[in-house]
TrEMBL record:
<dbReference type="InterPro" id="IPR025202">
    <property type="entry name" value="PLD-like_dom"/>
</dbReference>
<protein>
    <submittedName>
        <fullName>Phosphatidylserine/phosphatidylglycerophosphate/ cardiolipin synthase-like enzyme</fullName>
    </submittedName>
</protein>
<feature type="domain" description="PLD phosphodiesterase">
    <location>
        <begin position="283"/>
        <end position="309"/>
    </location>
</feature>
<dbReference type="GO" id="GO:0008808">
    <property type="term" value="F:cardiolipin synthase activity"/>
</dbReference>
<dbReference type="Pfam" id="PF13091">
    <property type="entry name" value="PLDc_2"/>
</dbReference>
<dbReference type="GO" id="GO:0016020">
    <property type="term" value="C:membrane"/>
</dbReference>
<dbReference type="GO" id="GO:0032049">
    <property type="term" value="P:cardiolipin biosynthetic process"/>
</dbReference>
<dbReference type="InterPro" id="IPR001736">
    <property type="entry name" value="PLipase_D/transphosphatidylase"/>
</dbReference>
<feature type="domain" description="PLD phosphodiesterase">
    <location>
        <begin position="106"/>
        <end position="133"/>
    </location>
</feature>
Amino acid sequence: MHGMWRDGNHFELLPEAALFLPSMFAAVDRARHSVLIELYLMESGRLASALIGALVRAAERGVSVMLLLDGYGAMGLATADRQRLEAGGVALRFFNPLGMQSLVRNLTRDHRKLVVVDGAEAFTGGFGAVDEFLDAWYEVAMRIEGPVVADWVRLFCRLWDSPMSRGPGRASLVRGLELATRQREGYRGMRGRVVWGQGYRYQAIRHSLHHRVATAAERLWICTPYFVPTFTLRMRLARAARRGVDVRLLLPGELHDHPGVRYAGQRFYGRLLRAGVRIFEFQPTFIHAKFSLVDDWVSLGSCNFDHWSLQWNLEANQEVDDPRFAAEVAGLFERNFASSTEIDPEAWSRRPRLQRFREWLYGTLDGMLTRLR
């Protein structure tokens, strides 16, 4: 499923936790009917405790609160916190808990990140409920109002009610949820759609990005924390650069939560640089954000555009086709480029043998993983 393009939305860019966390918590605190949250990562700590407190307070006000967590990504959520949620009236379910029946099935994870309040406003991005988002990782989110919120609600409901989701929360809770979406007219109205992917079974996110890359006219900027692109995406990026498109990649530097993934992706730097692609490595901290800008089209959400996201994960992005929002995202990119080190093609060609060995080693492991089914 990828949603229809819908007019009359409003999208607010929320870079960094200092902006998006207060906005999300304020939305939950003013909820009157329902709060729907879907996360991959939730681990016991300061942020998880604050979120649990906000959800329990909402439930105590009579709000229907549903929390859908990935069965692997939430393994760090302590039993005491799970009990606190249930005792506080929060309906809790887990997607695809780990099991021994099918080891390959365990690879399918719910990587989406979503908060919907009263069916009227939504948030998406790359966030999770782990303390790294408070002070260690750079993240970007967005606030959404308008008709596309209904598409996010439908996406949540389908997974909550799925046979792969289990837990004490009743599957039937999502039936009959109220929607309060309204169109934004005039200067606030923006065009957008929800697009999602379900591993190799359904790849609407990938197809959408490939189409935009192939038809880019002026600029093609991508930010992703885990850059291990498919062959097709690499070729399209190179072709775009050769035909004169300003192609730039904003990637993590040495501060990375999975250094092996960085090395696996760096083995592609050489050919991309020779094609004219500019590569920037972010220096201040680990950049966990996932957003793309192609001319006036923006895609922001959970998808990393790496093999793992495209082959195994459930992902979802918000696409926006609006020059005003694109200008905001372009400004954000420019600020982040200024805080990054640009890879020099000549210097990269002289990188040490140890670096080349790491690229080969982790690239080989990545290739083995992509062949799993």
